[in-house]
Amino acid sequence: MTPRIPRTRQSSRRRRLTDHSERRRRIRFRATLPIRIHTEGLEIQGQTRNVSLLGASTITERPATQGASATAELELPGVAGPPVRMEGTIVRSVPLNLPGDPRYEVGVFAMKFVDRDEARLSHYLEQLQMAEYAAVRAGYKALREKIRQRAARKRALLLAKRKRRALRLAKRRRRAAAAARRAAARAARARQRAKARSRAGA
Length: 202
Description:
Elements: H1 12-26, E1 29-30, E2 34-39, E3 42-52, E4 55-60, E5 69-74, E6 84-95, E7 104-113, H2 117-201
């Protein structure tokens, strides 16, 4: 009887870490970087559209053979050292199909990196992510400030409108009070004249 091999259960924490690491590798960052793709004895130059630890989507002047092995070299701006090299496969090579644009979209799937290039690319992508988060936070802050200023202007307009309404109402009340005083004065004079006539008739 074949002995039963006990199954090892991966801890939930380790599964979460593994899933997080895999999701992190799949995150694509919009970046325009110079890239050279070496495949089938050719060197294809272009620029990236987006980059991740699983590869890059590029725009090139010439197509590549889908399914062919390839080595891509990425130039990282502001990062010292040689280009980041990834070895993998061409998984996409299609025309852009844009009017007047004869270029191609070529996708490279990275199967492995040379030396410590994966760590260098990961560090660069983390910087891109931090810059994107900073830009988003700055955008939200600017939006909140714009909303605050708009609300302040709205409150100021409402207060000015209420003030003008209060002034108009006070003006009407003053006019009404003045008219009432004039009417009372006329009535008093009329009573005095009436009394004077009654005395003269007596």
